[in-house]
Specification:
The chain has 16 helices and 2 strands. By secondary structure, the protein is mainly alpha-helical. The chain starts with a helix and ends in a 7-residue tail after the last helix.
Length: about 325
């Protein structure tokens, strides 16, 4: 054997143990991983598999620390490295997904509690702090079609008072207004003179300015002219909507308007006929109260009731 062959044989013997050294380390690494994390490691070129693997490892890290208290330095380094490569966005997403079902459950519980209590679902502007008079007006009168001349005249006069007061304040003095204006009979109100007007305006319980009283008296005179022309104030007013209430389907209070094109047209016509305090906003409030338009919210218990009344054939008495 030549000297070159001898050297080559010696070098090969020296290299063979070193080449075998990484294999035990690889088996040792997989052994430790299996010991700490009971899953298998597979090679993959996609970053998704690595991130999902790191996420599962990080989620199971607490369990592994509990089951095996004697962690070697190698195990600690592996767990630390896997925690560092875990994407934080994935954690936030999983937390957000868990929060949404909890919120939905809470909402369902609140709805079930409301239904169990037996409370009627009303329009959102009716709250627990609303006055009983206003709640009764919403539940019994507001949105119900009115065809009586005296009642229409009363609602038109009360709607005009919204310039100075709100519905609650007006409704609390409604009986005083009826007594002062003779049940809102257009014929008797139209015949009021200066003495009656001053008496009503000076009544501290009514708290109605003299100019407001004169507006109501002037409107009664205009209604008398309409009675001679159309036969009734009811047929005149309902003619604007073709004798059928306008049914809206509002879901939220912000959808309910303060005025409408129809109210603006009625306002212009009434002003031409000499009426006072009949702006578009007041006219629309009158239309809501008299049932010419149904503006109850769709989830209010009065919506279906008023709609059923509105869909009846129109009959003027």
């Amino acid at each position: 054997m030549s000297k070159a062959n001898v050297r080559r044989h010696i070098l090969e013997k020296n290299r063979s143990p070193k080449e075998k050294e990484p294999k035990p380390s690889q088996s040792l690494l997989s052994k430790h991983l299996k010991k700490v994390y009971p899953i298998g490691l597979h090679r993959s070129s996609s970053s998704l598999s690595l991130s999902s693997l790191s996420l599962s490892l990080s989620q199971n890290s607490n369990d592994s620390s509990v089951t095996d208290n004697s962690n070697s330095p190698l195990e600690q380094r592996i767990s630390l490295a896997l925690r560092l490569i875990t994407p934080p966005e994935r954690r936030e997403v999983t937390v957000a997904k868990n929060v949404q079902p909890q919120q939905q459950q809470q909402q369902q519980q609140q709805q079930s509690q409301d239904s169990c209590c037996g409370e009627l679902k009303r329009c959102n502007w009716i709250t627990k702090n609303s006055d009983r008079v206003y709640v009764a007006f919403h539940d019994e009168c507001w949105g119900v079609p009115v065809y009586d001349d005296n009642q229409l005249f009363e609602l038109l006069a009360l709607s005009g008072m919204l310039m100075d007061y709100n519905w609650t304040e007006i409704l609390k003095r409604k009986e005083l207004f009826r007594e002062a204006f003779g049940g809102f009979d257009p014929k008797s109100v139209a015949q009021m003179g200066e003495k009656e007007i001053l008496e009503i305006s000076s009544n501290t319980a009514i708290m109605l300015a003299e100019c407001r009283v004169r507006c109501i008296v002037d409107n009664a005179k205009c209604i008398m002219k309409i009675l001679n022309e159309f036969g009734s104030f009811s047929s005149f007013m309902w003619g604007y909507v073709n004798f059928k209430p306008m049914i809206n389907k509002f879901k939220y209070p912000r959808n309910v308007p303060l005025r409408s094109p129809k109210a603006e047209a009625i306002s212009r016509d009434l002003l031409k006929r000499g009426f006072r305090l009949v702006g578009p906003v007041i006219v629309y409030s009158f239309m809501q109260a008299a049932g010419l338009t149904i503006d109850h919210l769709v989830d209010c218990f009065r919506y279906s009731e008023c709609v059923s009344l509105a869909e009846r054939p129109w009959r003027h008495i």
